[in-house]
């Protein structure tokens, strides 16, 4: 049985282990993440630990569970909070595969918890499972038929952001909120208190702790009820550090759910406490690795088609296109059924299989079945440069949505109602783009001015007042002229908006609201025009979001 290294990268600790292929752990340890040193330092620490383990174990692959939003296909961090600076955009899979010369697979930590529970945990015998993790924040993952459903832009299951009674779910029912509320009422410093302390105090009759735990359970039940009504999973598993208090919490949760769920639904939804606890991230990372590994038969078929494309006739190319885009259907079709469906002859399908050196059509069916059993459905894509460019652009635009998902458009809309003038500041190299942005922003029926050099900016100071909306565009986030004008705008009590690609840059500190576009690392091989496309897409999204507000303003 093969050995794997699994890492669970969090903001506080890096947990790591050596696991057997069946999920059993033969060695584990943990070290401080030292997240403040940045993403590169975190990955360097992973490399060092990996080197040490490789000297003692015959390792087959590296499995990564990590905080942040993850593109699990590319093994790349789409977005990470400031808890790990410069982590956003890191291509972990590519970097570690180059370093270790082993296959590496990367998945989000909450998704890994769900995968672990559906594999060898409480949900191993159910067809649909939602795993809810309660800790510093709240996360979730949705598993159907052993397949992780991560959504269109890898943010499926982000239950912590759903609104409940005017706040986000994780602001009401997380361990962080419990500690904050108890510390405030007792006059304790928050860093001197933790969840374990609070439950111990509650067990000893402390009224403040009892009341705050009951309040947490009240909101936790609201979130669980939302999951049950919207997704109707067979089981909801609650994980995270708070589940160490199972004996105290579970009866309270079930009692509150009797008020929040109709009996018919509550009776048919299993509510469980996670079984893998602190090891779930590592076990789930291994499960993700094995699932990705099982996709290799699919990759073999597409590689065969691509390698022999030059040999194919027009009709055979039609067969290749159908097989690539509908691989999961191939095992269900006889050769005659396939011929009718594609409108080709059976002999042409036979020749196609021989040209690919597959042999027979039955062998192709067997390979297709192997490629689809036990794996999630594949994106149906063609192998052409046009499709690759299209996918790159789609990934970039999805990334813009992800980076700006926390922006409060209602707040911006309220500021726009008060604005008498919009002023755009940016570098001279962006003057053309800024003028195009100006014309788009004029749709708001508010005067718009653009200034792109130091002389213009210095002379524009007299325009600044509390009724202005000032936008600073600096891709790097460090343009001194733009920063100077944003500082001047803030002194005049003007509302300021920053547009940048760097989340830890000065521009984010000097603006009331910040929009993000992808960084240079995100663009990769895509044409540099993606910069302009990103800005226009961002503005069009913004204009669409505030359209109802704009109509109200004009009236």
Features:
555 residues, alpha/beta, five-stranded mixed beta sheet, 19 strands, 48% helix
Would you write up a description of this structure?
The protein is α/β, with parallel strands linked by helices and 555 residues long. It has 24 helices and 19 strands. It has a five-stranded mixed β-sheet, sandwiched between helices. Helix 5 runs antiparallel to helix 7 (207-231), helix 6 (195-203) crosses helix 7 (207-231) and helix 11 (296-307) crosses helix 15 (361-372).
Structural class by helix and strand composition: alpha/beta
Strand order of the largest sheet: 3-2-1-4-7
Q: State the total count of DSSP E strands.
A: 19
The oligomeric state is single chain
Cα-to-Cα separation, first versus last residue: 71 Å
Low confidence ranges: 374-384, 549-555
Query: What spatial form do the alpha-carbon principal axes imply?
Result: globular
Overall pLDDT, averaged? 85
**Helix proportion:** 40-55%
Provide the β-strand percentage band.
15-25%
Major β-sheet annotation: 5 strands, mixed
Calculate Rg over CA atoms. 27 Å
Number of helices: 24
InterPro entries: ATPase_NBD, Homeodomain-like_sf, HTH_RpiR, ROK, RpiR-like_SIS, SIS_dom, SIS_dom_sf, WH-like_DNA-bd_sf
Domain HTH rpiR-type: 299-375
Keywords: Carbohydrate metabolism, DNA-binding, Kinase, Transcription, Transcription regulation, Transferase, Xylose metabolism
Domain SIS: 412-555
